[in-house]
Each structure stands twice: as C-alpha cells, then as structure tokens.
Amino acid sequence: MKATPRSAGLFLASLLLFLFSWLFDSLPALFLAGTAAGLLLLCAARFTLSIRVAGATLHVSRTAAPFILKQGGLVAVTSRVILALPPGLSARVSDIPPPGAPVVKGSPHSPLLSAGTHEIELSYAISCLSSGQLSFWGVDLTLCNGLFSLTLPFRGKDFKGPTLCVDPVGRYRSSTGPGVFGEREVESRQVFRGYGIRSFREYLPGDDTRSIDWKLSAKHGKLYIREYAGLAGKSPLLVVDLPDGAVSCPENLRDAVIGAALDVSREMCRSPRGCSLMVISGANLLSYLPDERSFARVEKVLREFHSPRRVIQCYRTLDPAIAESFRQRIEGEGEGDTFSLGLREIYSRFIPAIEPLPFEVQCARALSRRSDVVLHVLTTGTGDPSHLVLLGLQARRRGIEAYLGIPETAGTASLAGRLTGMGYSGVKVIG
Amino acid sequence: MYAAITGIFLRESPLLVPALACGMVCTACGLLVALAWPDELALFFLAQPLVFTSWEIGPIVSLFLEIGVLVLFLAAQGYLATPGDIPSLGFFFLLLGGLVLFLMTSRHVAIPLAITASTAGLAALVILGIASLLVTRVAGGSHGETKER
Question: Which residues of B touch A86 (CB under 8 A)?
Fold first, then answer.
C-alpha cells in the first residue's frame, strides 16, 4: 500500500502531535494525535476492504490477432475490461504485454476510472521481438482514494492468455537459383509442368490440348501451344540438428536454426515433392517426416523438439573407415616408435569391434529412400560434430551431395574447416 | 462557528483573547483554502487548533467538536455513501470517546501515550498485513480469451 502526500501529511501531523504531547505533557495534543492516527487507520482499513470488493469484480477478455506470427511481427491486441468500483475509489487498469514485446501503437493503460461500473476497451499493438510461446504477463489494477493507492497484480494463468506463437526468423537460401535449394528453370526436351513459359509454337497432333494458348490462337487464327519451363533439381532432405537442451547454448543460435528450418520447410511443403524433414539432436534421431505436405505437422515437430534431451552422446566417434585410414597412416609414419606401435595395436583390436550406431543405420535408410536426394543439414555448430561427420560420410558413400547451414555467429570458418572432406560439399551461412 | 462557541465558553477566562485570535486566524485561513484551493484535509487541519483550545472548556466539548469535524471530512471523502460505513464510523467514535475518558482520568501523558501509540502501531501492522496478503494472493476476477488467426 502506497501513501499519497495527503496521507503522509496526516501521518506526520499525528507524529508531531504525539511528540508535542510527550514534550509538553499536553493531554489535548495527545487527543488530537490519537484522532489523526485513528482517522488514518480508519481510512486504511476501509480502503483495504474496498479494493477487495473492486478486485473481485474485475473481468478481462483479451483478443490477439494474429497469434501465430514471425519474430518482429505486429499483433493487434484488444482487451475488454469490466470493473465495478465502490464509492470513494478510483482505478486505472493496465494490460501487461508479454516480455520482449514492446507496445508500438496505442496504449495498454486505461484512463483514471471513477466510482461506478465501467466497461472499457484497451486497443494497442505490440511488436514481438522475442520468439517462442509468449504469454501476456497479466493485468495490473491500480486503485486509489485520496489517501492511499495500491496496485493489484493479476498474474494468474487466467489472465495470461492468449499465448502467442512467435516463430524465430532465419533464412537459408542458395544464391544459384530461384528455388529454395537452388533449383533453376531449365530448358529441356522433357515435358515440364511448371509456371514459367519458355516459348509458343504451332499446335502439332499429339500435343496436350491443355497447353493451348487460346488468346494467341484467337489472335492469329491458328492453334498455338505454350512450351513450359519447370523447376528441375534433386529432392532435398532437410536435416535439422538441434543442440542438447541440458547444455547451455546461445538462444540466438537455436532460434536461427529453427527459424531457417521453418522458413525453408514452409516453401518445401508447397512444392509438389513435399518436405522431407529429419530432426536430430547429436546422434539421436528425434523425428523423420518423408515427403510431408502439411506445414502444420512440420511446425509441430520443430516446436516439440525445441530443446531436446540427448539420450546418446557422441564424443569423437570414429567411423571404421576413418579409423582404418588413421591406422594405415601410423603404420607408414612411426616405424620402431613404441607409442606408434601401441596405438596401432589399439586400432587393430578396436576397428573390428566398432559397431555402427543406430543413428548411422537410420541415416542410411533415410538417404537410400530416393536416388535423387540432396542433403541440407542445418546445425548450430555447437558441441561435438561427430554425428555431422557420420551423416556426411553416409551421404558421400551414396554419392549424395550434402550441404551444411550454420548461423553466422557460430564460428562458421572453424567448423567448416573441420568438416571439410567429411562429405560436405559446402557450408552456407544462415542469415 | 467554532471560534464563536469557544468564545462563549471562555468569556470569563484569561484564554478568551488568544482563543478568539486563534479562531479568527483559522477561520480566515479556512475561508481562503475553501475559496482558492478547496481541500478537505487542509480544512480538517485548520479546525484542529480550535479543538485544541476547546479542551480548556472541557474534554467532552472538544470530543464533540472533533466528531463534527470528522463527520464533515469523511462525508466529503465519500465515506458515508453506503449505510455499511456507519457501524465502523460509530465504532471509531466510541474509541475516541474511550480515549477522551481515559485522558480525563490521567494526570500525565506517559501511560496514555504509550498505550495509544502501541495500539495504533499494532492496528497499522494488521492493516498492512491484510493489504500485503491481498497483493500476493490476488484471487479475484475472471478472464476470458478469444483467438483469431
């Protein structure tokens, strides 16, 4: 409970009168001091009872549109507030937007309301700078009379809705063509069913009648058909590698990867081939959606595994082929050296015992599903990259092109250097 | 009005002149406040010297004057808008009466001062505790939400 200047004045007067009565042994001063103190307490007690009554009448109904949006997007919020105030009390209602979502238009505060029943509407717009599931903080009801003021924070879950789903922003694009993964329009003898028109020619028997351009045919008095250009390229398999939820990882890296994955998969879902998505966390396959057409399902998977817990942890996991190459290199280099001999012995004993990880088997199955696959791996680039190496090697063994997408701030150069020669054709930066 | 009442009761006392002077000053100040910047609390404060001087006539007179001032002040604050306020106000006036009776039987302020101050402190703690509980456990109200895509 906060005191206003008036109640502070009353308190001070009471205190001074108490002091006066004590110093001068004055009974009337003590009577006045007691009266002032009693009046202050009476007003405080009545104010406490009044705010209880007013708080119980508060009803808030909030509408937010859109509630699924991209990071930085605007949300129009309308809150309808119903409040009944007892006599002698005035109030101000403040709607508290979610954290990281500043108000950019309008005001979330109501004007000062006097006693009586009120039905008001607060209309404002917020810009969602944070990503993820954003809930409103609640409602603040500031009540005051002439002597006191108090803010009641309504923070219950009933006052936090609706929850806004803000997708992080990320972009993973190839600069070689207009398609999501660099597909280009090509001219070919093969019949394409695309959107671009390459040329027009006269109709020949056997041509598809659906290709006839009726406008051109009417103009020239002869039948003309359209020759289409279409998108040609391999079927992309998008692999999203999310960092371990138990290990701290900068949120902007995680958001950049998920944002890029959402951006790419949104367009892939619209394409005739759909979106083939694999969500992994280290050497753990979390979800695999082959040729998925529903973006909602893709979005759900990416949200569900936002902060996964890794069951299998890899650390400098070796592929048998790489281990064998290491062993051969040692054989050639350190003749007579006891350390090299010991290491060679260790390699010789361990290489036959190396079993493929379940992750490798799963990757092999996913990659061998189609012959014309191109692999795109989006990763934060944090932690041990063994699983990325295993994935890259699996792709290389099947002659599959593989690309890596890493956020700009994740030390792209060093990771790219480490993964060079591990099956990845190139490293792209997620913007 | 209070100055006139004080004057009537103190007509044969040496305190008549100071009491009348005090009454006139307070009345002038009260008029000034009421006309220039009306504030109930300021008027309440301006009435206090008269209540103080009327104690010389008799504590009961002083009590009734104070009750009159309080009723006017609280009515101006909107505290007597509902019939539910009257019992609490009656209880408060009874407490004031008790305080006056206690002061009438006391020769020095030490004991009444200690009792009054400690009682007021305890009451303040109780009220602040209730207010704090209200803030931490806000349970009132209801909420509805609508989503629009």
Answer: 82
